[in-house]
Amino acid sequence: MRAMAANTEFHGKWALVTGASAGIGVALSRELARQGAKLILTARRRERLESLAAEFAAQGVETRIVVADLNDPAAPQHIYDATEGAGLTVDILINNAGLGQYGAFHSSLPEQEFSMVRVNCEAVVRLSRLFVPRMVERRRGWVLVVASTASFQPLPYLATYAATKVFDRFFALGLAEEVAPYGIKVTALCPGTTESEFFEVARASVFRTRKLQSASEVARLAIAALARGRRTIIPKWRGRFTAFLVRFLPTGLITHFVEKGARPIAKPESVFPKATAFKSTRPTGSGDPAPKPDRTQ
């Protein structure tokens, strides 16, 4: 894909990226650095954050790290206190962190289901509620919420995950309309199958498609859309096509075929198909409307 010109709007501004330690989070951080932004990287894994910060420091990019686990409801306040509360002006908020779980809901790990709601939904709201009011006061700001192509239809065996991504997408769209008069741009990013750690972490290589979109391409398109104030960006053509197509198909028909294609194969000694947990590298990401989870969020 042709390289896009750097956006000067982000130059010299602080960007906070959650889930910055891997996958789309790393790619978004690199793209923001290419656009001249200063970076605040947050995730659970200190070693990865420090390694990424060292990479950016070698390029002359001013970088801070904040180690935090967004499964903890206190983490958003901790992140805010270490950044905006400490005098840094955060103009760009990238809500990328997320997690998911593939498998039958009735036999899944309950805490993983609850964690998906906390990280994918509650943390997004908490962080946005902390940082957006300051953007409103300054009459400028950019917010990216990483949703998924999973947000366009129900997905059996990714039921909770897909539902959280519907929340993310609708939250972004509603917020975008509210804050537009204050000069703030909000974009919902809906990636499909993307190169990430998901397939290895989730032991779900059966879902790997031959044509995964690169995380760097997703990031380029996402940051360009955010700069333009585009409300929704689906970076993969297949995702755009299926998001359009499902509008004309009965939901029951979609879920019927997705369930058949996505049904876990139970081991002979198992009574129920077990669920497989996966942590996001947001991702944040998601899954195609087809029965294939796309990425870790």
Q: What does this protein look like?
A:
It contains 9 helices and 11 strands. It has helices at residues 23-34, 46-58, 75-82, 110-138, 159-179, 198-201, 215-228, 237-245, 251-262, and strands at 14-18, 38-43, 63-67, 90-95, 99-102, 141-146, 184-189, 232-233, 276-279, 285-288, 292-296. Helix 1 (23-34) crosses helix 7 (215-228). The chain has a single domain (8-296), classed as 3-Layer(aba) Sandwich (Rossmann fold), CATH 3.40.50.720.
Keywords for this entry:
297 residues; alpha/beta; Rossmann fold; 7-stranded parallel beta sheet; two-stranded antiparallel sheet; 11 strands; 41% helix; 18% strand; disordered C terminus
